[in-house]
Amino acid sequence: MSEQIHVAVLMGGWSNERPVSLMSGNGVADALEKLGYKVSRVDMDRNVAQVLAALRPDVVFNALHGVPGEDGSVQGMLDLMGIKYTHSGMVTSVIAIDKELTKQRLVPAGIPMPKGTIVESKSLFAADPLPRPYVLKPINEGSSVGVAIIKTDSNYGNPISREAKGPWQEFDTLLAEPFIKGRELTVAVLSDKALAVTELKPKSGFYDYDAKYTDGLTEHICPAEIPADIEAFMLETALRAHQLLGCKGASRTDYRWDDEQGIDGIFVLETNTQPGMTPLSLVPEQARYVGISYEQLVHIIVKEALA
Questions:
Q1: Could you tell me the pTM of the whole model?
Q2: Is 304 a catalytic residue?
Q3: Is 183 part of the annotated catalytic residue set?
Q4: Which residue in 13, 129, 243, 288 has the most C-beta neighbors within 10 A?
Q5: Which domains are present in the chain?
Q6: pLDDT of 34
Q7: Is 276 part of the annotated catalytic residue set?
Q8: Are 223 and 230 in contact (CB under 8 A)?
């Protein structure tokens, strides 16, 4: 059946995550061609609607990361054009990329997340919004873009200096959350099935954008070496987050776990509706662990979108 199906792989764009999106998109396109699909590679620019209208694909594989591919903008455009597409729809994308809206959806349903507060960036130069250590992050960026950990002895100054390089120079408002010490873990969900728990051990610092996408900077332990009750809770919570947010295709839920606190030390940081599909990415890695090849993974995602 696949040889009749025309897939436009949408990648690139102009977000901070463009290079990763190009890696994801080309990997997906290669896999689809091996499977016998007709494939068009589309490096998104401002004329993307005209390009897609001319191509008339059966389905778009959304391999974009960040804005506007992950925030509902592209999803809304494709909905208007009547083109089917992979991964989550417009409303889910709008909510999931916004860390505060995500909390409003997940926390009342019993999903543990860090308590946070939205702050004006300029207020940080007068006083800390939370006791140190705490984390500052953009409200709607993915892949740990613009995350800063503010410690007592950090070189950001106390209070934070206007001259210090950080997300306060790029964003007018930020989310401040208590810093959760402990371990970094993640769970991929594919078509309503939680796959595995992976622990991420950056060689230095924390699991930031460079650690995610530079070979050799982070050790992936899959499956994570954690107690069975912790693993079960994370798998169940990731699946519930996926369902509560209305995710489709693949999603990935990221955690911090203070292992001294046991199950009470588990906190969801975010659910990513457009997880990476690069060779270093976690969804393909967890799929391999449960016996799903990269080509099969891509095929499953496309089939769900077409259905």
A1: 0.90
A2: no
A3: no
A4: 13
A5: 2-88 (3.40.50.20), 96-112+181-291 (3.30.470.20), 117-178 (3.30.1490)
A6: 97
A7: yes
A8: no
